[in-house]
């Protein structure tokens, strides 16, 4: 039985907004995506009215789940700034912090950190996975969330093919791999599907993965962010209750420009930058051991000093890291005594230390939007 957008809208006629308007007529409703029995949509509300809308969100989910043929329904509230409020521009630098709507933590999760960069392909996902594993070797209970809805990486990097089980039809059980608790949209939808998602859907799916997955008790949740510093990333940085951000950059000037944008973005939303990792820092020939600084080693360290953020360490450009990643066998888990694992574990130790500092000296200021 095929569920259509019209079926969903018809069922939403039975859900009343706080002012009595039926939800299907409300301007707050995003576009509705119904595909293969899976339904996604979001309701955009003012940050101050989230409490009043939560019962509407719940009711909407109930009525949609009751439609014959619906296998899952994801409905999320996206808190928007009031109309007319200045839209923060990451490029405008860190002059004044942008309003940050109230973010609610994820129950049981002590600290959520983002691994990000302005630029694509610099090794965020590879770093996120090995950093998460490095934090786990320090004795922490660690989860990893793939926030790259358009191009999820964790199914490949951790060689995960199974689908998360549904718990009572309302929550999902995350996947366990190498001691990490893992969730990615790539476990749920076909690889091609995310490409057609629109902005609010992405936020919906993310909120759902944060709040409707049984993460359990975690010391740290590492979030592998999508590339860029556009609206999607900014919204995520605002909506996910982040304790800090780790910026990954390669040493070239161009990548550093993007890393700078990433740092400015997090600063604007009052998320402490825990530091910069220089990935593909230098090339060590696997045959002769000769080292060459292909991208001009040290750029990220200098940039960190210039911007006054900690330098967390460097990871060489090495065939083993790439090959192992592509096979779903991350080096920290599969070659724990090797030099690459040691580099990642040293970075993890610095991140852990920075996290302690982040809570102690830089409490996040929450400003109502
Ligand atoms: N230190 C490294 N040495 C060798 N290869 C690496 C290293 N770090 C990452 N790679 C490789 O570079 C490619 C891009 O890495 P990755 O997918 O982690 O980047 P990303 O920043 O997450 O990309 P995207 O912006 O697309 O999300 C992958 O093939 C990965 O295996
Ligand atoms: Mg990635």
Give structural attributes.
disordered C terminus; binds adenosine-5'-triphosphate; 11 helices; nine-stranded mixed beta sheet; elongated; 34% helix; 369 residues
Instruction: Provide the list of bound ligands, each named once.
Output: adenosine-5'-triphosphate, magnesium ion
Chain-averaged pLDDT? 83
Radius of gyration: 21 Å
* Total strands: 14
Pattern of helices and strands:
HEEHEEHEHEEEEHEHEHEEHEHHH
Shape: elongated
Task: Report the helical percentage.
Answer: 25-40%
What is the strand and helix layout of this fold?
Blueprint: H1 5-12, E1 33-35, E2 38-46, H2 50-65, E3 72-80, E4 109-116, H3 124-137, E5 142-146, H4 154-157, E6 166-167, E7 171-172, E8 175-177, E9 180-184, H5 199-211, E10 218-224, H6 231-239, E11 244-249, H7 253-268, E12 273-284, E13 291-292, H8 299-307, E14 311-317, H9 319-326, H10 331-334, H11 339-361
Parallel strand pairs: 2-3, 4-10, 4-11, 5-9, 5-10, 11-12, 12-14
Antiparallel strand pairs: 1-2, 6-7, 8-9, 12-13
Helix pairs in contact: 3-11, 5-6
The structure holds adenosine-5'-triphosphate and magnesium ion.
What is shown here, in short?
The chain is built from 11 helices and 14 strands. The protein has 369 residues and is α/β, with parallel strands linked by helices.
Describe the protein in words.
There is one protein chain. α3 (124-137) crosses α11 and α5 (199-211) runs parallel beside α6. The longest helix has 23 residues, at 339-361. Residues 80-101 and 360-369 have low confidence and may be disordered. It is elongated, with a radius of gyration of 21 Å. It has helices at residues 5-12, 50-65, 124-137, 154-157, 199-211, 231-239, 253-268, 299-307, 319-326, 331-334, 339-361; strands at 33-35, 38-46, 72-80, 109-116, 142-146, 166-167, 171-172, 175-177, 180-184, 218-224, 244-249, 273-284, 291-292, 311-317. It has 11 helices and 14 strands. The chain starts with a helix and ends in an 8-residue tail after the last helix. The protein has 369 residues and is of the alpha/beta class. The strands form 3 sheets. Strands 4, 5, 8, 9, 10, 11, 12, 13 and 14 form a 9-stranded mixed sheet that branches. The protein has a 3-stranded mixed sheet with strand order 1-2-3, with helices on both faces. Strands 6-7 form a two-stranded antiparallel sheet. A hairpin with a 6-residue loop joins β12 and β13 (291-292). The site of adenosine-5'-triphosphate has 20 residues, from α3, β12, β14 and α9.
């Amino acid at each position: 039985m095929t569920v259509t957008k019209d079926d969903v809208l018809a069922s939403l006629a039975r859900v009343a907004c706080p002012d009595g308007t039926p939800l299907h007529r409300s301007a707050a409703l995003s576009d509705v995506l119904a595909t293969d029995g899976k339904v996604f949509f979001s309701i955009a509300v003012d940050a101050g009215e989230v409490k009043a809308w939560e019962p509407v969100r719940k009711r909407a989910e109930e009525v949609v789940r009751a439609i014959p043929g619906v296998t899952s329904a994801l409905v999320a509230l996206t808190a928007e700034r009031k109309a007319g409020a200045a839209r923060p521009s990451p490029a405008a630098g860190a002059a004044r912090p942008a309003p940050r709507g109230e973010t609610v933590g994820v129950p049981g999760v002590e600290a959520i950190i983002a691994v990000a960069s302005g630029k694509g392909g610099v090794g965020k996902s590879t770093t996120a996975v090995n950093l998460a594993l490095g934090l786990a070797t320090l004795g922490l209970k660690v989860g990893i969330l793939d926030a790259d809805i358009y191009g999820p990486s964790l199914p490949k990097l951790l060689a995960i093919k199974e689908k998360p089980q549904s718990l009572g039809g309302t929550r999902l059980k995350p996947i366990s791999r190498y001691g990490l608790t893992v969730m990615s949209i790539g476990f749920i939808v076909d690889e091609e599907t995310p490409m057609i998602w629109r902005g609010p859907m992405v936020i919906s799916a993310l909120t759902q993965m944060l709040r409707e997955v049984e993460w359990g008790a975690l010391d740290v949740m590492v979030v592998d962010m999508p590339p860029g510093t556009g609206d999607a990333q900014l919204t995520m940085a605002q909506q996910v209750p982040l304790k800090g951000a780790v910026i990954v950059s390669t040493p070239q000037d161009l990548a550093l420009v993007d890393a700078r944008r990433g740092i400015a973005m997090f600063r604007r939303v009052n998320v402490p930058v825990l530091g910069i990792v220089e990935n593909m820092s230098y090339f060590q020939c696997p045959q002769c051991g000769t080292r060459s600084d292909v991208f001009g080693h040290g750029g990220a360290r200098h940039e960190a000093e210039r911007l006054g953020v900690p330098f967390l360490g460097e990871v060489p450009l090495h065939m083993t890291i790439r090959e192992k990643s592509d096979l779903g066998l991350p080096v920290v888990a599969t070659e724990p005594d090797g030099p690459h694992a040691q580099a990642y574990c040293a970075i993890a130790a610095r991140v852990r230390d920075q996290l302690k500092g982040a809570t102690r000296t830089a409490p996040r200021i929450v400003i109502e939007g």
